[in-house]
Amino acid sequence: MSYTSRMFLYIGMLIALLSGMMLLSFKTATDVVVSGSRDHLRHAALRKQEVLRAQGEELLSYTDIIVNDVRLQEYIYIIVELKTDKDGLAAYYDRQFGSLQVDAEVIISNKGDVLYGNENQALVSAVRKQQDSHGRREFIFRSPDGPVMVAMQPLVYQGEVLATSAVARLLGNDWLEKQEGASDEYLMFFENNGHVLWRSNPAYRDFRIDYDSQVISTSDNRIFYMHEVALPVKADGMPRLWFAASETRLLGMLNRYRDWAYIFSLLGGLTVLFLGWLMVRNFRRPLAELMDATEAMVHGRLPVLDRRESRTELDLLLNRFADVLDALRREKAKVKKAYRKLQETAITDSLTGLYNRRYLQEITPGLFAQVERDGRYLTAILLDLDYFKAINDEHGHLAGDAVLVHFSRLLKHNSRASDQLFRIGGEEFLVLNVAESPDGSVALAEKIRELVSQSPANYQGTQISVTVSAGISCCFGHSGEGSLSRLMRSADKALYEAKAGGRNRVVRHTSCEKASDSARRRVRNTSLSLVKNTNKPS
Amino acid sequence: MTRRLKKQLGAGVVLLAVFAMFVGETLAAPVQTKKVITGAGAHFAWVIFDSLKADLEKVSGRTIELHGRNSTLGMGCNAGIKTALQNSPDKETFGFVCCPLTDKEAGSMKLRVYPLALEPIYIVVNQANPISDISAEQVRGVMRGDLVNWKELGGADEPIVLVTRLHCKKRSGHWKTILPDVKQFRQQRMNVKSAADMVQRVSDFKGSLGHIGSTWTFGAQSRLKVLSVDGVMPTAENLRLKKYPFYRKLSAVTDNHPSKDVLKIIHEVQTGPAFHKVAQKYHLLPLQEAQETYAP
């Protein structure tokens, strides 16, 4: 798998991981929020419970005010003792306690007569039932309009209990609405066996109550979590009071957060993907160049890499690699030069600089192939310095070497470009030439012989005269019989004849005579064909 | 700390001390009360002084400050006596009471008593009560508890609710013209602390019967009416003729060293012509006529 594929795979895994973490965080946050909301609801319900208890205390404090009013005590005393009219009591009571925040008030004498509040018959009945137990207390009873919270207390005058004062607050729709202000977010309601009897918000009527999860849903599919609010006093057959808080808004808010989380995940992922793509691209380009360079090196090339100005690790590596390639190129040039020098050393004679016998063996097949392919003549001039041993003996080997160098220089300077010059023995030299006619080689041999005889070698101021004998052999390309040994044997035979003939002379082998004749014929034939061709138009 | 800083701090402390002294003296300086004479006491006498206030200030050349309306803020006979005893050259005061002080009480407290007028005591019932006249003996019978139902007085079959205000128990006069001793009053009664309560109780109970001085101004919401006693209405004339049996003496009181201006004020009330208009309005019998009628 390429690094690009891996990079995309890693980025994809990173995006998946990030998305998973965000979703997990969202789920955890949802659980925490819902749990917190439940706690909040429980605390809110406890606060409602405390409010209810405080209202009960408030009612009791009202009864404290009422029963401890001395004038009221006198009024009641007079009414009870004198059995006079009760209008005065009503007038006084209304004047004195009319501002108390209660829904109903009664004063009932010990004998059960209603001294005040006769219109509140439900309350009168309830208080009469409770009147047997004296003392400051509160209780709740159920009325058609809702539960009624009552505080009652005996009224004592001069040590005698004359009556019972009771004040009541109706916990019906109005009271519930006052507690929550017809809020859409919170509800308070009394419920009995799944039936909602009184509610804080009249807009909500049809509730579906799930007691197990303590959730209610309204007809418009709003969800409320609910918690029971304990009434300050227990009463048989009393409906249960619930406080409920809407979670729709909260869940809606959480869903919006979730959507934003998705969007951020997507945007974040795309951003990471884009950045990853940029990184891969920046990472891949120098790598690709390195790979191309190494591929070229595998094939024996040392490419030139452009150096980069940026300072990333890969660019630095690439620049370093370019340095390595430059160094390799320099080393390669040195090796090549050394190889050439070595190769040259292997095929040349170190003293004269002419080719040696090994090179002769190397190039001979090529020359013969060329001669055979082109139908030309290969001429071999075998040269041998005369009485060279005597020179060594007389002047020393160094002087002999100087003579050899002198001769080689003459040979080089006077040979043709197509001539191949060899030193094949101590004082034996060979000149090979491929040409249309061997006559040129014969002329060259004669020229060399003459130059050598006329120009003595100089060794440490001593002029050493020397001569050279030459044998020439030829080989025609189409004969198919050419070989180096035969050519050399023929040249050697001619050289022997030159030596035998007195030295300082050039002897042609018969093969050369035949070759010369053949060449001349070919030339003549060619000339004639040219003449014929010239006459043809006429 | 540099010498310069020490000097600055020292100067600051001195300035602060001077400022504190100035402010302290300003705050501690007595309020200029030289031109003000303060009078306080029972509502029933307060009505007289308050009605004559402009005349009294003119006569005395002093500003008069009066307390006692509706006997609120702790006002009453005892407050009048207490105010009178607070008299000093810097703060001239006098008091007024609705009950006659005995010589013993006045002597022991070093008070001077200046009788002003006799005030009839109304016998009041609820407006719903058909009774309009009652005899003095019937009043006393009701007060004693001998009569407990209006039908015994020719009225409806309605229990009598007795409302009393038995104040100034150690002094003579006032309610004692009805029954001389508290113990003689019916136990099953409503004993109120103020005249306002009296009016309220009588207004509240249809079968009620109470008593109150004639200078009390009944409010519009009060539902009571004044009964004639033995066919005699509680007027100054009937007091002068000794036909109306229930009354009390309104007086002013000072310490033993009243200022001339205070005496001028009291004397003007006792003898001035303006007082007669007030007396006529509230059915008060002025001092001189009272002395002639009720001289010992």
Model description:
The complex is a heterodimer of chains A (538) and B (296). With 538 residues, chain A is α+β, with helices and mostly antiparallel strands. Among the domains of chain A are: 175-246, no CATH class; 302-344; 348-533, 2-Layer Sandwich (Alpha-Beta Plaits). Chain A is built from 13 helices and 18 strands. Chain A has helices at residues 3-67, 70-82, 87-97, 121-130, 173-180, 248-298, 313-347, 357-374, 388-395, 397-414, 439-454, 484-500, 510-535; strands at 104-109, 114-116, 137-143, 146-157, 160-170, 186-192, 195-199, 208-210, 215-217, 223-229, 240-246, 377-385, 420-423, 428-435, 457-459, 462-464, 468-476, 506-508. Chain A has a six-stranded antiparallel beta sheet with strand order 7-6-11-10-9-8. The longest helix of chain A has 65 residues, at 3-67. Chain A is rod-shaped. Chain A starts with a helix and ends with a helix. The mean pLDDT of chain A is 87. Chain B has two domains: 36-118 and 248-294, Periplasmic binding protein-like II (D-Maltodextrin-Binding Protein, domain 2, 3-Layer(aba) Sandwich); 120-240, D-Maltodextrin-Binding Protein, domain 2. Chain B has 296 residues and is of the alpha/beta class. Mean pLDDT of chain B is 85; it is low at 26-33. Helices cover 38% and strands 22% of the residues of chain B. Chain B is built from eleven helices and eleven strands. Chain B is elongated, with a radius of gyration of 25 Å. Chain B has helices at residues 3-28, 43-51, 53-60, 77-85, 103-108, 136-144, 195-204, 236-240, 260-271, 273-281, 287-294; strands at residues 36-41, 63-67, 92-97, 111-126, 133-134, 161-164, 189-191, 208-213, 224-229, 247-255, 285-286. The chains are: A alpha+beta (538), B alpha/beta (296).
